Predict the 3D structure of the following.
Amino acid sequence: MLSICLSMLDSDEDKHSFEKLYYTYKQGMYAVAYGILRNKEDAEDAVQKAFISIANNFEKIKSLSGQELKPCIVIIVRNHSINIYNSNKRRAERVVEYDDNDSPVDVNFLEKYEYDELIAVISELPVIYRDIIFMHYVRGFTPKEIAKMLDIKVDTVWKRIERAKKQLKEALEKRGDFNG
């Protein structure tokens, strides 16, 4: 599997960096995947898919610092694991429900709040929304890059961003902190 990922990279420097990343994080990634899937083969598949996603996006991934890299890798492997879990659970078509009555939420309302205050409220969001907000607004990944890394549709990423912003706004309103 490592050789497949290395063949996806161009430079020897990237190959060396990827190999180092692989040996540093593969056990932890497996632990995350196994914790979700409770199945050795499925956990190995999730880790493999995660490494392929990382290799496909290595230009962006290698620019992350050590502190930023680990959470990003955990998000990627966790989402691949969840995808496999859902696939196993349903075995049929996956349906993403969209509520056409949702109206877009303007993200400018967030500028009124202190960073620590926003992080506290974001940390209370459900994992699928928290991860998308983290990857998009904090790490700067585009929805297309996020979709590719998490193996979901770009439309799903956009919908999760909208839902996360809506839940974030509602949470701030409930706290009495919202003046918008």
